[in-house]
Specification:
Number of domains: 1
Radius of gyration: 15 Å
Helix content: 10-25%
Number of strands: 3
Structural class: alpha+beta
Number of helices: 1
Shape: elongated
Oligomer: single chain
Strand order of the largest sheet: 2-1-3
Length: 68
């Protein structure tokens, strides 16, 4: 029986920008443990759906990773 190697996790601070009709209105920072930057971005975007800024009453809401 072989053991699989453990993925090394790193801590990333990811900023998610919330926009309405293309106009930014909020930014939240998420601290994410992930093996790489791309996975950290994806995980932060997934977590952002729990934000108070993710509200169906906001017209044309979009979220994006922004670089600090």
């Amino acid at each position: 029986m072989q053991t699989s190697p453990q993925a090394v996790l790193h801590s990333f601070a990811i900023d998610i920008q919330f926009s309405s009709d293309g106009e930014p209105f909020a930014v939240e920072r998420y601290t994410v443990q992930a093996p790489d930057w791309y996975r950290a971005q994806r995980d932060a975007l997934e977590r952002s759906v729990e934000s108070p800024y993710d509200n169906c009453r906001i017209p044309n809401l979009t979220r994006a990773v922004i670089m600090p």
